[in-house]
Amino acid sequence: SKFVTIKAHIVGQPSESDFEVREHLVPLSVSPGSNDVVVKNLYLSVDPYQINRVKEHSASQSAISFAFRLAPGDRIDAYGVGRVVASANPGFEKDDVVVGLLHWSEYSVVGGESMLSKVDSKEFPLSYHASVLGLSGFTAYAGFHCVCKPKKGEKVFVSAASGSVGSVFGQYAKLHGCYVVGCAGSQKKVDLLKGKLGFDDAFNYKTESSDLKSALKRYFPEGIDVYFDNVGAEMLEAAVANMNTNGRVAVCGVISEYTNAQKRAAPDFLDIIYKRITLQGFLAGDYLQQYFPEFFSVTSDLLRNGKICALEDVSPGLESVPSAFCGLFRGDNVGKKLVRVAHE
Ligand code: NDP
């Protein structure tokens, strides 16, 4: 069966030619007592953080552990939804639909319940379990309720706002009664934010790149209370310059820095001190055990009542994984980028 791997560690922006599709043998049966579950992958996620596992690392990036990195030829772990083909684990049986850490491959052999959970395959499209009801949606939820904790009426800014995490975060903030402005990389995305997603305002950061600080001043004449950062670098600096006293910045991701080792946010620390700004990085995984059930029930209800919109961008076939992934760094995707590897 097929899987996607890297030819060599990636330098700079990823391109399709950095990847290749290889074949390997996956046993479609399991040996009793092994605890293994064989999964036919249906929807696979492509995520910006994966670049940090497959890129060439500089010595300064020491926080990213060596074990986290992958080598050329390795299978690449990826979150996704699949159907159980065979199971030696008593928690799963053939035809169960599961979500969890799979691979960019047609089939995955996964070692038991720690990595997988069963999903109800009836109520929502299966893809939702890898998007709005999966880790992306959860990241927005944890960022909102555990990190930023906005109050009604507060002024909230979101970057990469039409993306997978940003679009859900912005919608939670609107439902909570905040004033929400998002930025994104095209007019089409700006229209989507102001239209379908109901943001109060939105702008194209590419056309404002000569002076992001003044742009934010225009969109937030009364200052920003909460900034949900997905991009880092200049936008983080500009946001800090426009934060109000006691403002909170949740650093969810810094996608503009992942592929450019020279790029580093250098916010004004005097601003941070005098305005008592809290700048907090977070990992959604830390909150999973405690908050996932609550997130799932709240977000399912919002979906049922049409209060939240699930944005998905699906490409067909395992071969489209490289272009889907590279597209994240070009801004090709609108909403959660997924690859449909097989039909349900
Ligand atoms: P998105 O769906 O938002 O896709 C990435 C988007 O980022 C692109 O569509 C593009 O949109 C924007 N982008 C790409 N390159 C740049 C750039 N150089 N400068 C500014 N914007 C850029 O991805 P996700 O929602 O999955 O992830 C968003 C962020 O959240 C990432 O930084 C990711 O690493 C992080 N993350 C963090 C987690 C955590 O636990 N802390 C968990 C999951 C995600 P545009 O057209 O607007 O440029």
From TrEMBL:
SUPFAM superfamilies given in the database record: GroES-like, NAD(P)-binding Rossmann-fold domains
Query: PANTHER family from the xrefs?
Result: OS06G0602900 PROTEIN, PROSTAGLANDIN REDUCTASE
Q: Which residues cross the membrane?
A: none
Q: What is this protein called?
A: Enoyl reductase (ER) domain-containing protein
Alphabetical keyword list: Oxidoreductase
The Enoyl reductase (ER) domain sits at 12-339
For this chain, one GO molecular function annotation is: oxidoreductase activity, acting on the CH-CH group of donors, NAD or NADP as acceptor
Q: Does the keyword Oxidoreductase apply?
A: yes
UniProt keyword Oxidoreductase, yes or no: yes
Q: One matching Pfam family, short form?
A: ADH_N_2
